[in-house]
From TrEMBL:
Pfam family, one: YqeY
InterPro entries named among the record's database cross-references: Asn/Gln_tRNA_amidoTrase-B-like, GatB_Yqey_C_2, YqeY/Aim41, YqeY/Aim41_N
Lineage: Bacteria, Pseudomonadati, Campylobacterota, Epsilonproteobacteria, Campylobacterales
Membrane-spanning intervals of the chain: none
Protein name: GatB/YqeY domain-containing protein
Gene3D superfamilies: 1.10.10.410, Uncharacterised protein YqeY/AIM41 PF09424, N-terminal domain
Organism: Campylobacter majalis
Length: 147
């Protein structure tokens, strides 16, 4: 079952359980996926869906930070809960130690030696690691490794 199909299945379950928050959050997520499908005129693969899910989580986290700065803890909590809900559909996230090991391997493969190689390093890291880690975390650790 694809991720998109799983989201649709979970919407149905949330409707049966009368879980309004989960239902509405998943409907919003599904509408984003549907809009990308319509705009690009393609059938979404799991790879594309994973990228969209990561962008949606980033949006929720950014909104949460803005709400916290504005003193709106209630809205920040909602955004945080939505980000956690979306994260369920991503593959298991690497912890910092696992991520460092993978990035060290990539550094050895590329022969990267300085921060000047960061562009190529990040491209290779995103291809190999994929949705198993957030791009911000990859970037921070990559900069530390290359520095």
């Amino acid at each position: 079952m694809s991720i998109k199909e799983q989201i649709l299945q979970d919407i149905k379950i949330a409707m049966k359980q009368k879980d309004e928050f989960r239902r509405d959050s998943l409907r919003t997520l599904h509408s984003v996926l549907k809009q990308v499908e319509i705009d690009q005129r393609v059938e979404l693969s799991d790879e594309i869906v994973l990228g969209i899910l990561q962008k949606e989580i980033k949006k929720r986290n950014d909104a949460k930070d803005i709400y916290l700065q504005g003193g709106r803890e209630d809205l920040a909590q909602k955004e945080s809960m939505e980000a956690e809900l979306i994260a369920v559909y991503l593959p298991k996230q690497l912890n910092d130690d696992e991520l460092k090991l993978k990035l060290q391997d990539i550094k050895m493969q590329l022969g990267a030696s300085s921060i000047k190689d960061l562009g190529n390093f990040m491209k290779a890291a995103k291809e190999q690691i994929g949705a198993s880690a957030d791009a911000r975390r990859i970037s921070e650790i990559a900069k530390a490794i290359l520095a």
